[in-house]
Write a structure and sequence with these properties.
With 217 residues, the protein is α/β, with parallel strands linked by helices. It is built from 8 helices and 10 strands. The protein has 2 domains: 49 residues, no CATH class; 158 residues, Alpha/beta knot (3-Layer(aba) Sandwich), CATH 3.40.1280. α4 packs parallel to α5.
C-alpha cells in the first residue's frame, strides 16, 4: 500500500510507483499532508509513504555468490547505525547485512528512515551465531573480525572474496569466542584519545578497504 499527497502523485517517479503498485494488486490512497504527518510521525514528512511486507530474512535466502562483500553485525543496538551500515553496503555494492543474535529491528521506523532507501537494495538476514557459522562454513567465505585485540592492521591483510566483515556491539565489541572463530582479526589505527570508532563508521572504512583491494586487484 502507498499513501501520498496530491502533489506527490503528480510527480513522474511517484506516479510510476503508484501505477506499479496498483498493477501489482496493491492499494494507493491519496490524503492530506496533515494526515501523512500523523501516519509517519514526522512534522515535515516526505510526500509518499509505503507499507510493505517484511522480507525473507533467513540465511537460506542469501546467495553468497551475488557479491564479493557482505556485512555482518553482532548485537547491534542503534537503528541509526544499522541504517548507515545499509547505506554503506549499497555504496560499496555489498550483497547485504547479516544481523547476528539480538539486534535492533531492521524494519523499525527509525532504521527504515536511516537507511535512506538502502533497505530495498540490500539483502537482510537474521541468525544466531552457531547457525551463521554453520551456514558460512558450508561454502566459500572469509570471515574478517574487527577488534581492538587484533595485531593485524586492516590495510596489511589481503581479503579474499566473498569477504564477510564482522563488527560487534557498539559498547562491548565482539565476544572473545566469536573472535576466535574469525579467519582473521584486524584493527584500525587510533591516533586520538578515543579507543574506538563508531561501529557504522568502522564498517564503512573496512568495506571501502575491501572494495579498493578489489579495484586494484
Amino acid at each position: 500500500m502507498v499513501v501520498s499527497t496530491a502533489e506527490a502523485a503528480a510527480h513522474p517517479i511517484a506516479a510510476r510507483l503508484i501505477a506499479q503498485i496498483e498493477t501489482d494488486g496493491g492499494e494507493a490512497i491519496e490524503t492530506s499532508r496533515d494526515i501523512l504527518a500523523k501516519l509517519s510521525g514526522k512534522d515535515n514528512p516526505q510526500a509518499v509513504l509505503g507499507v510493505f511486507e517484511e522480507f525473507d530474512t533467513s540465511l537460506a535466502a542469501i546467495d553468497r555468490s551475488a557479491s564479493d562483500i557482505w556485512l555482518v553485525a553482532q548485537a547491534l543496538r542503534d537503528p541509526g547505525n544499522l541504517g548507515t551500515m545499509l547505506r554503506t553496503g549499497d555504496a560499496v555494492g555489498a550483497g547485504g547485512l547479516i544481523l547476528i543474535d539480538d539486534c535492533v529491528d531492521p524494519f523499525s521506523v527509525e532504521t527504515v528512515r536511516a537507511s535512506m532507501g538502502a533497505l530495498f537494495t540490500q539483502r537482510i538476514s537474521r541468525a544466531r551465531w552457531p547457525d551463521f557459522l554453520t551456514w558460512l562454513r558450508a561454502g566459500p567465505g572469509q570471515l574478517v573480525g574487527t577488534s581492538l585485540n587484533a595485531t593485524n592492521d586492516y590495510q596489511d591483510v589481503r581479503y579474499h572474496p566473498p569477504t564477510f566483515i564482522l563488527t560487534g556491539n557498539e559498547a562491548q565489541g565482539l565476544p572473545e569466542h566469536y573472535e576466535s572463530e574469525c579467519d582473521v582479526l584486524v584493527k584500525m589505527p587510533m591516533r586520538g584519545k578515543a579507543d574506538s570508532l563508531n561501529v557504522a563508521i568502522a564498517t564503512a572504512v573496512m568495506a571501502y578497504e575491501v572494495l579498493n583491494q578489489r579495484r586494484r586487484g
